[in-house]
Amino acid sequence: MLDRISAPQTNFDIKLPFQLPQATKILSTSNFPFYVLNMGSQDVIRIEWIFENNPEFEKIKGITFFSFKMLLESIKNYTSFQLQEEIASLGAFIDIAIFDERTIITAHCMPKCALEISLLVSKMINEAMFLDSDFQLLKDRTIKNLEISLQKNSYLAQQKFKSQVFGENHPLGKNLIPADLINITIEDLIYFYNEQIVKTLSHCILSGKIEPSLAKEITNINFSSTFKDEKSTQLKIVASNLKPIETYFQKDSSVQTSIRLGCITIPRTHPDFHKLNVTNTVLGGYFGSRLMQNIREDKGYTYGISSSIVSHNGFSYFVIGSDVVKEKANDTIKEINYEIKRLAETSIDDEELQSVKNYLIGHFLNNINSPFSISDKNKFIAHLHLGPDYYNNYLMTLINIKKEDISEMTKKYLQVPLISVLVG
Question: Which domains does the chain have, with CATH numbers?
Answer without folding.
Answer: 24-219 (3.30.830.10), 245-423 (3.30.830.10)
